[in-house]
Amino acid sequence: xxxxxxxxxxxxxxxxxxxxxxxxxxxxxxxxxxxxxxxxxxxxxxxxxxxxxxxxxxxxxxxxxx
Length: 66
Hints:
Elements: E1 3-13, H1 21-30, E2 34-45, E3 51-61
């Protein structure tokens, strides 16, 4: 089993409510590999009303090349 740590920013659209945020994040992480653990490290607001940026740190097993 290969493990890889990823650290990236994810756009959080205004249409995604806080209650659905976990599902949204995991859905994006699954595209990269099997999720072992993840955490929100930082949240940055944007100057326009397009949403926010969330910094995610995660450990993935058997990561896909993407």
